[in-house]
Amino acid sequence: MNICVFLSAADLDEHYTRPAREFAELLGKGGHTLVWGGSESGLMKVVADGVQEAGGRLVGVSVDFLAARARTNADEMVIASDLAERKALLLAKADAVVIMVGGTGTLDEATEILELKKHGKTTMPVVLLNTAGFYDGLKQQFQRMEDEGFLPVPLTDLVFFAEDGLAALAYLEESRGVQ
Predict the structure, then answer these.
(1) Which residues pair with residue 161 across a beta bridge?
(2) How much of the chain exceeds pLDDT 70, in percent?
């Protein structure tokens, strides 16, 4: 399965990098392909290293102004002209999406895939990996949106909240019918 992972390229503390590395190893050992922002820095590098070392494939989609930071030994690397094209290419190459810890770029990517799901433009399974409770506030906000009528479909139809990588991958494989 081609799993698009939206995540930070920042250098982060071990309480984020350790679970990310563990999830990456699960992806690689499962024979999955990581589709990601292509960066050779921060958490993006941690996940790409883990997937590659565990036998998975890497498909990166960078953007022209970040091309100098792109991983040179990915199985495939595409350079988009802007962030909108990058998001479109990432999603076009994916069978599923996992949202890991990140900043405004990750949040932008997360809301875009959820909006596409809300409008029936994709049926891809989406997991929000809530490492160390990072997305507790966002989960609460989404729940409020649902409770107060802002979501035309149930929240559970849009996103699965996973507390660890094992739960995230199990949900994706079950959703995609992978044995």
Answers:
(1) 128
(2) 98
- Residue 169 CB contacts under 8 Å (≥ 6 apart), including other chains: 23, 26, 27, 30
pLDDT reading at 152 higher than 70: yes
Length of the chain: 179
pLDDT range class, residue 179, cuts 50, 70, 90: very low
Torsion sign (Cα): 116, 168, 77, 82: positive
Contacts of 113 (CB under 8 A, 6+ apart): 6, 91, 97, 99, 122, 124, 126
111 token code pair: 């809301």
What's the mean per-residue pLDDT of the chain?
95
Rg (CA), the chain: 15
| Selection from 160, 163, 124 nearest residue 142 by Cα | 160
Q: List pLDDT tens digits, range 99-111.
A: 999 999 999 999 9
Q: Say which DSSP state 13 is in.
A: -
